[in-house]
Amino acid sequence: MWTIPNVLTCFRLVLIPVFLWFATRGTAGGAVTAGIVFLVAGLTDTLDGWIARRYGSDSDLGRFLDPLADKLLVLSAFYWAALGIGASRSWFSIWLVHLIALREIAITVLRTVRRMRGEQVITAAEGKAKTTWQIITIAAVLIFEAAARVAEAVGLPGAWIDSGAVWWLVQGLFAAALVLTVISGVRYFTVNAATMPVTGKRETGGNAA
């Protein structure tokens, strides 16, 4: 149970409330620290998957916890940005974030059911792209928020955060993430929806879904 990848995954779960606490402070220090915490959490995701593959320390627990930790981290960041708690503005439509959350919950349920039946779970290649764009979108928001808070703290103009260019850049990133989220979800169900056991590549630590 306590392999290095699983410890890193559990550490990522612990970082989620830490990230939210700093992100909702509404201060320059909180915004910068939230960005750093999110970066560290992302690095643990990359590291635990690499270690699991490199040293053969993959486990059933890791296959369950790793994607779960990823989804909770990303969804917590999306909901924070959509609600605008401690942020300079509300960045996303809460209803579109609900759609992303619905997809993640459905995939988690499907994965759990198939595993309980002793069946293999085939991952969709689009899941990697989905996760990448989600993280890029969140990273962009965190960077803009930190820059705006720091500018405000040192007395520099911060009105640029409300500019159309910033807004549409973030919306474009979010739209790409949303489209890939829907496509990967449909693809995931397409290859896994059959009730009979299927053959294919089984999930390993660090695989996106």
Task: Describe the protein in words.
This protein has helices spanning 4-23, 28-55, 60-83, 94-116, 126-153, 164-192. The protein is an all-alpha fold. It has a single domain (4-192), classed as Up-down Bundle (Four Helix Bundle (Hemerythrin (Met), subunit A)), CATH 1.20.120. Helix 4 runs parallel beside helix 6 (164-192) and helix 5 runs antiparallel to helix 6. The model is unreliable at 198-205 (pLDDT under 50).
Give a short synopsis of this structure.
The chain has 209 residues and is mostly helical.
Q: What is the global morphology?
A: globular
Q: How large is the radius of gyration?
A: 18 Å
Q: Give the C-level CATH assignment.
A: Mainly Alpha
| The CATH architecture | Up-down Bundle
Would you count the extended β strands for me?
Answer: 0
Order of helices and strands: HHHHHH
Strand portion, in percent? under 5%
Kindly identify the CATH topology.
Answer: Four Helix Bundle (Hemerythrin (Met), subunit A)
Q: Which regions are unreliable across 5 or more consecutive residues at pLDDT < 50? A: 198-205
Chain-averaged pLDDT: 82
Helix percentage: over 70%
CATH superfamily: CDP-alcohol phosphotransferase transmembrane (TM) domain
The total of helices stands at 6
Main β-sheet, in a few words? none
Helix/strand/pairing category: mainly alpha
| Cα separation of the termini | 22 Å
Number of domains: 1
